[in-house]
Amino acid sequence: MATGESSDAGPARFGPTEEELGRWMDSAFHVAGDALENGEVPVGCLLVYDDEVVGKGRNEVNESKNATRHAEMVALDQLLAWCRRSGLDVGRVSRRTALYVTVEPCIMCAAALRFLNIPVVVYGCRNERFGGCGSALDVSSADLPQTGTSFQCVSGHRAEEAVEMLKTFYKQENPNGDQKQLCLLLLFTHFCLFMLNVCNVCPSWSLSAPNPRTRKA
To answer: What is the extent of the structural domain holding 97?
Structure first.
């Protein structure tokens, strides 16, 4: 993972090399393919720390009947479990961890990434309806006090392929009812927006969660 010079503004930013980007995104697309084969929205992701996968996830919304079980949330749960098993501090690990995901994280997932201070997110196609990295709302770089730190986005890697996978899924019939899951996701997204707004307007408020940047590929 390439690193930059430190500055008074905070720790040095870092980002993937071209080799890392291609390798890890290839793996993320394999995970997305598994999601598609299992009747889930084809999104796959990896969390990589020190050249090791510490979290891997695909959408599990239909399987779990839980509209919040997005690939990123599944992978973040694995990251937390990995830190517990390894006896490592979550904050120190997450600040040196990159996320590779086939589709732009939604507002909910982008907020979770901020709270854990994940510094770099590499994604394929844009999420025009729910994207939290600038498509629907810019959670990734907005000035939001007490909501973690902003993160760098590297976008557009194999975007057309990611879009085609999504089109393939939505041509199919979803046996678990897209509308119900969509309503639940909309409600949770509005809740995330409300909490981000509360933290921005009322900086004295704090959340119980521990306080654990965009270029084209």
So the answer is: 12-216
Total H helices, total E strands in the chain: 7, 8
For residues 70-102, one letter each, b for 16 or more C-beta atoms within 10 angstroms of the residue's C-beta and e for the rest, the string is: bbbbbbbebbbebbeeeeeebeebbbbbbbbbb
CATH number at residue 55: 3.40.140.10
Count of domains for the chain: 1
pLDDT in tens, 111-140: 999 999 999 999 999 999 999 999 999 999
Contact 103, 114 (CB under 8 A): no
Of 178, 217, 203, 164, nearest to 61 (Cα)? 178
Stated pTM of the model: 0.78
| 72 noted as active-site residue | yes
The one catalytic residue in 5, 72, 160, 173 is 72
| 81 or 13, higher pLDDT | 81
Angstrom distances, CA of residue 16 to CA of 2, 115, 121, 209: 6, 21, 10, 28
CA distances from 107 to 9, 127, 178, 207 (A): 25, 10, 19, 18
Residue 105 falls inside a structural domain: yes
| In contact, 114 and 123? CB cutoff 8 Å | no
- Helical (H) or strand (E) element with 76: helix 71-86
Question: Band of the pLDDT at 209, cuts 50, 70, 90?
Answer: very low
Residue 114 near residue 105 (C-beta atoms within 8 A): no
Model confidence at 198, pLDDT cuts 50, 70, 90, reads very low
